[in-house]
Design brief:
The protein is of the alpha+beta class. It contains 13 helices and 19 strands. The protein is elongated, with a radius of gyration of 25 Å.
């Protein structure tokens, strides 16, 4: 007879939270994690600080989940962002709220989030099994166990698949969960990167490669619909092959049915100034420099590393005298500063994405329990499910909430 045990495949955010509350309920709980350490992806989130949740209500999380947000309603009702904050505070990890409701550990160390989760799991009675799952075992329509790559078998009556998606494969997110779901007969919605850098038709020079621009605005134009589909403000990183940074990754989540040339990123270098005010500033700079070079004037408006590229975009020689700049050329400078347009040719590879869009079809999962509608005793939690959110702590919150409700069920 199968041992009354809950086995969780994956020791990330969803798996650890599921393990903690499963063990706290008194169940024999084992977390199978193929990496030597748990929470490897958590270590690198939020640039090593770990944006652990967003200080908002459940409705806001759903509103920031463009793919199947309503599916999360029951999970968020059971375990909200407030519950996440309380969990870490009560377990000795103080948190702080920053711009946009983003929540981080006071220490600014993602390791403190991982340590808190691991300690809570151990204290609750979880056992860690550092082995790689190879196949799930199903008997008479019910979960029976898992076969490991070393040939051993782990029996269980409940199995929670919390393996993550396909993004950041070096952390162990290699898509195993999709294969397990298919073994159980589940439909896998085609995978695509989300919250990912973008390649553009226009390329920057070596000087601008890796340049981080702060306090810029962007608009995303869908040329097929002739409609602005997204606007944002924040940090953008220039790359030789295109664009990265927080605002670009967020923008990528809105680009459905990607086609080369369909989307344009309109970069506003001076969002705080309207065109009239910006033109007046240029006139003052020209009068001040007069016999100075166009490049000298641009140095008062942007980092030097971008000057060569920007001069090329404007179609004005960098070594042209300021006194020789015409009214039409000045208008081009204003126009380019307010809308330096880049044409998107495609997403960067999925292993550069923060999250994976696509995954196990939500129609085949009970949203109140996260249990499979096809196999009794089989549950899903986290990124393996076809849900993905915008940046700001929403994806990790979705992982915590689905992990909690799966364990409770």
């Amino acid at each position: 007879m199968t041992e009354e045990k809950t086995l969780i495949i994956g020791g990330g955010a969803a798996g650890l939270m599921a393990g903690i509350f499963s063990a706290r309920s008194g169940r024999n709980t084992v977390i199978a994690e193929k990496n030597p350490k748990v929470g490897r992806k958590l270590y690198i989130t939020g640039k090593g600080r770990c944006n652990v949740t967003n200080n908002c209500d459940a409705k806001t999380v759903i509103a920031n989940t463009p793919t199947n947000g309503r599916f999360l309603y029951s999970a968020l009702s059971a375990f909200s962002p407030a519950d996440t904050i309380a969990f870490f505070e009560e377990n000795g990890c103080p948190l702080k709220t920053e711009r946009g409701g983003r929540v981080f550990p006071v220490s600014d160390k993602a390791a403190d989030i991982v340590d808190t989760l691991r300690s809570a799991a151990v204290n609750a009675g979880c056992r860690f099994l550092h082995k790689t799952a190879e196949h799930i075992i199903i008997k008479n329509g019910c979960i029976s166990g898992v076969k490991m790559t070393d040939g051993s078998e782990e029996e269980c009556s409940k199995l929670i698949i919390a393996t993550g998606g396909r993004s950041y494969p070096l952390t162990g997110s290699t898509g195993d969960g999709y294969r397990f779901a298919e073994e159980a007969g589940h439909t896998i919605i085609p995978l695509r990167p989300s919250l990912v850098p973008l390649e553009t038709e226009e390329h920057y020079g070596y000087d601008a490669d890796g340049l981080l621009l702060k306090n810029i605005g962007i608009r995303v134009l869908d040329t097929k619909k002739n409609k602005i589909i997204y606007t944002d403000f924040g940090e953008l990183e220039l790359k030789r092959w295109g664009l990265s940074g927080a605002v670009v990754r967020s923008a990528s989540a809105h680009m459905k049915d990607m086609e080369p040339g369909r989307y344009k990123i309109c970069i506003d270098m001076k969002p705080a100034l309207d065109e009239k005010t910006l033109d007046a500033r240029l006139l003052r700079e020209i009068d001040s420099l007069h016999t100075g070079l166009f490049a000298d004037m641009l140095s008062t408006l942007m980092p030097r590393a971008l000057i060569g590229d920007f001069a090329g975009i404007c179609g004005i020689a960098a070594d042209k005298r300021c006194s020789e700049i015409t009214r039409a050329e000045r208008a081009r400078v204003v126009s380019c500063l307010k809308s330096m347009d880049r044409t998107v040719s495609g997403f960067r590879p999925i292993d550069e994405a923060i999250v994976t869009s696509g995954g196990v079809c939500v129609k085949e999962i009970d949203p109140k329990t996260m249990q499979s509608r096809l196999v009794s005793g089989l549950y899903f939690a986290g990124e393996v499910i076809d849900i993905d959110c915008y940046t700001g702590g929403f994806n990790i919150q979705a992982a915590f909430s689905t992990g909690f409700i799966a364990s409770r069920s």
